[in-house]
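The instructor's notes for this session suggest beginning with a concrete chain rather than abstract definitions. Hand out the sequence below and ask the class to guess, before any prediction is shown, which regions might be ordered.
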Amino acid sequence: MSVKVASDKSTKKVQSILNFTDNNIKKTITCTICEMTYNSKLPVDVDLHKKYHLEFTNGISWPNTLTPSNYLAQNFNLVVTETRPKLGKLKSIKAQNIVKARIIVIDKTNKRQIEKVDKILKMVNQELNATEDSKQWRNLNFKNSKAFVIVINNKAVGLCTTDTITEGKWMIFKNQKLVPNQTISGVKIGISRIWISPRWRQLGLGLKLLKFVTENSIYGQSLFKNQIAFSQPSSNGGKLAKSFNGVLHKSGEVLIQVYTEDV
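After discussion, reveal the predicted structure:
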């Protein structure tokens, strides 16, 4: 008996095509201003970046309750030039506003202030691509190491943290190379981090901070500029150091004072 086996025509091969739309592709972006990396397709990430970006550019909240009137501080007026948009046929105009600012010395026993400074430092280190600092500014064993904050409109817009040091080194400003076999004695304070939020840059606040540091780091003593050195200065930090205490060498090179931060 012959048996015919029917061919199974019910089984067909089907080619599957995976359709990936743009919505399925991760859109990872690094902000060129605040340096935060986030996914532009995730609403949660977008909201986090928006909040972080505003704090980075404008400063973080610093309510009056954080700085009682008896704190060591310096009040000053800051002249800010703003460009107003044109109205009708009028061209855009520049207007000067006077803003009240304040520099305060952080209290190492005040937990709320410490938390705020730590938050700013995270922004600073991210922008500078820097490692953690020595934290001397919050250590009670280092009485001359401090943190200084600039407050404008109840926002912390500037920060400087310092280390206690005993010597420095010379660095060539142009190429950021250390001068070999040379040390600087008599240096007492190291600028670990100094930072101004983008909205308030180019207004002289960095130099204002440094002057305050020289006058309020060591009790009863006002430091000379050559007693200050800088840690791992960035491009902008190097320019600030040059303006503050840069030295023109006989070779024609500008030298700035730096130190190695112990972390």
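Then share the key points. Residues 111-128 form the longest helix (18 residues). The chain has four helices and 14 strands.
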